[in-house]
Amino acid sequence: MPTKNRKFGDFGENLAANFLQKKGFFLLEKNFLTRGGEIDLIFEKDKKIIFVEVKTRKNENFGHPLENISPAKIEKMKIAAFAFLEKNNFQNRDFRFDAITILRGKIEHFENIADF
Q1: pLDDT of 82-102, one tens digit each?
Q2: Handedness of CA 10, 14, 20, 21 (dihedral sign)
Q3: Level-2 CATH architecture, domain 4-110
């Protein structure tokens, strides 16, 4: 049975997915998991693959949700992203890493949170 935190995280991921789909993003996959890392949501828009980390918080007791995406988390996302690209034969596609934060119901979209 999912924990309360997992249910809250799933709720945030569903909100984020709906938010991006309304902006014309096409959902390719949710919760892509590899040995090296995980990606919450993977979309395609304008022939670009967008890997999305979702952070949902009820308050700012531990800072803004964006502050909770550490460099180590981004490195794990990169490992998973390259595995996804290879698995789907998308090695030649442009891609980027975005974040969606949800804080007290307010959704924010941050593009290009990682550099290469």
Answers
A1: 999 999 999 899 999 999 999
A2: positive
A3: 3-Layer(aba) Sandwich (3.40)
Give strand ranges (E) for the chain.
Answer: 26-33, 38-45, 48-57, 95-103, 106-110
Tokens of 44: 């395609």
Asked if 84 contacts 74 with a C-beta cutoff of 8 angstroms, the reply is no
Domain coordinates in residue numbering, the chain: 4-110
> pTM of this prediction?
0.91
Predicted confidence (pLDDT) per residue in 38-80, tens digit: 999 999 999 999 999 999 888 888 888 898 899 999 999 999 9
Q: Alpha-carbon distance 21 to 16, whole Å?
A: 9
